[in-house]
Amino acid sequence: MASSNVHLSRARFTRFKTRQPFEFGLPNVAAGISQKSDGSASYLTRVSSLLRQQVLPRAASVKIVSDEIHLDVLPKPQWTRSFDRKRVLFLIPADALGDCVGMTMFLRAFLAAYPHCKIGLLNTGSASDIFTSLKNTEIFQLFISAHALKRFDFIIDLSEMDGWKDIATAPVDCEGVLCREFDIPPVPLPHKDVAKGNMLQIGILPMASSPLRTLPPEFVAKSIHALRDSAGPTAKITVILNAYQGVKEAYKAALGEDIAQDDHLELVDGFKTIAELVSFIGNCDYVLVADSGPAHITKLAGIPGIGVYSSASSEVLHGRFCNIKAWQSDFRGEYCAAPCGLAKMHATEDGKIGCMGSLAVTKDKLVALPNRRDPALVQRTSTTDPVPCVKHLLTEFDRFEAFLHADFKKQITKA
Questions:
Q1: What is the pTM of this model?
Q2: Which residue has the higher pLDDT, 222 or 193?
Q3: pLDDT in tens, 359-412
Q4: How far apart are CA 314 and CA 203, in angstroms?
Q5: Helix or strand holding residue 272 (H, E)
Q6: For the chain, what is the radius of gyration of the CA atoms?
Q7: Percent helix, strand and coil across the chain, each rounded to 5?
């Protein structure tokens, strides 16, 4: 690219060199996406911490050249140009599952608009499995070599999309924003048909990465009974927990003994890879999901069900997708009202961690993301003492149950 047509990426990279072969990968990514060195003179990565932990101890010849590398990228005003028969490297700004599903749907549209274009994705990280369904796509989950970098005609930093800077407090419809900014139409909505005559497969995925969006165990237990009433005794209900959050066992215990004793219900601690999670959701006939990565993964195949939302706006997070119906907490309190826009717990200046409602403070008092983990707080707010907008879901469960019965009946009748 001519220098007048580029500027430096927002994303910052570490350049390193080594003459010894090495592998660089993540444990929750399918083995087929693991990366190896290719004999290049140098490599670039955004995850310098993993570089120092995984590569340096094993390859004594590794030398870090700089932690301040910015790539020459195509400015956003030029995103509407034609990319026909070009090679384009997209810099993925984060590995949050929901955002990456939105980017995947945008990339489906991009490849439909430019079917002879080949693309690369750099920094897909732990969300790499989300992108594997894309054609003509090379995935660089953690690093790219100097040889590979030279193959691309354009580099595009997706963190330049509108709204990305504020995503921690204001969710972004990545697919919708990017399709508008590249001036391309989205692809048709996927649709999943429920197979007649087979045992219904119902998935419940209640845990999010934050207690602000995790469904209370009591709410989930009541929902299981409601789904059993609607689906009948032989439907297979599977509850997927999250083994990485540290509250799995407490959450499982809080569901109650009667849930554990249901012969047609299975509690799964979690999946080793995102690919396994995607496969599970794709095989479901109906889902009940928290505002989390799995809620977005349903968009990839059009899986029907209900998404339950608390602090985040279902309208923004759903975008144009209508495969799952949204149930939004309508909590109203002295310090906040749902949806407030927070995706994660925040901290006050004196280090208290929570949200406006749980700490009884105004939003301006939450000055930063926490700089420490508080396992006891996470367990308590995920199981026995949810934040106000999440707790409110229980106070309106009768209305939710009616909504669930009606939607389930409609989906199964339609099938």
A1: 0.88
A2: 222
A3: 999 999 999 989 888 899 999 999 999 999 999 999 999 999 999 999 999 987
A4: 20
A5: none
A6: 22
A7: 35, 20, 45
Only one residue has tokens 């009541």, namely: 222
The CA distance from 194 to 279, in Å, is 16
> What is d(CA 174, CA 99) in angstroms, rounded to the nearest whole number?
6
> Distances from the Cα of 267 to the Cαs of 237, 272, 283, 348, in angstroms?
9, 15, 16, 37
pLDDT of residue 171: 78
Q: Which homologous superfamily does the CATH classification assign to the domain defined by 201-330+391-414?
A: Glycogen Phosphorylase B; (3.40.50.2000)
Structure tokens at 214: 């995790």
Q: Which DSSP state fits 41?
A: S
Q: Kindly give, in sequence order, each residue whose CB lies less than 8 Å from that of residue 196, ignoring residues fewer than 6 positions away.
A: 415
Interatomic CA distance for residues 178 and 214, integer angstroms = 28
Q: How many helices (H) and strands (E) does the chain have?
A: 14, 20
Residue 360: partners with Cβ closer than 8 Å, 6 or more residues away:
334, 335
Q: Contact, 194 vs 302, CB < 8 A? A: no
For residue 52, pLDDT over 50 is answered with yes
State the DSSP string of 201-258.
EEEEE---SSTTTPPPHHHHHHHHHHHHHHH-TTSEEEEE--TTSS-HHHHHHHT-HH
Q: What is the pLDDT of residues 294-316, one digit of tens each?
A: 999 999 999 999 999 999 888 88
Instruction: Report the largest interatomic distance among the alpha carbons of the chain, rounded to a whole angstrom.
Output: 67
